[in-house]
Fold this protein.
Amino acid sequence: MEREVITLLSKREIEKMRRAGHLAAKLLYHLSAMVKPGVSTLELNDEAERWTQEQGAKSAPLGYKGYPKSICTSVNEVVCHGIPNAKQILKDGDIINIDVTLIVDGYHGDTSKTFFVGEPSPIARKLVEVTEECRRRGIEAIKPGAKIGDIGAAIQEYAESQGFSVVRDFVGHGISNIFHTAPQIPHYGEPGKGKRLRPGMVFTIEPMINEGTWEVEVMEDKWTALTLDRKLSAQCEHTLLVTESGVEILTPYPGGDGV
């Protein structure tokens, strides 16, 4: 079995990740003002691409393994990797996860947030709030010497205590000048299991929390992942750095996100 190699980033690389992460968070904040009934997911995508080019950055998803758009827009029962399109019009009561990744000077900033379209249902509101708290608890578990399993255990324990489930099929990941690299960061697991966290490690935490079953299925487009029972799913994501004393969020949301 091939050994998983985890790269520790240098100070120079971390500064590049910080710049990419901050710009990605600004893009997400910029798009948030467009999230309202009557807007198509393609409009969100096109504005993201226009803004990204204006900043001199690149969209990492565009063309990645054949992905056709610049961002992912996952509405309601879509867990992740929803493809923006002109026919998908947001309506009152929807929830939408917008996932953006920018490349700045060769390094990646990756972040996402689930937004309410108009007035959400009580269950949708609770699901999104629990998902954000799951991410907060996962981040709180990060410090030198902790184990990867500590992150997933903190997320899983809280999600399930609130009556929700944690997606297994998609996980957080290492990120640097490579979009997806080691280590994998499951959002479920056991405390004290897995690789030890060390300063200089950079990875995402991006819990996908479902209203019903954790099981998903991928559509024929090979990208769009749906909840198997077609109930709601929410996700939020930060890119994170393990520091000497704890953790730094490299994608801080300009409007504040409670983390």
User: Anything to note?
Assistant: The chain has a mean pLDDT of 96. The first strand starts at residue 58 and ends at 59.
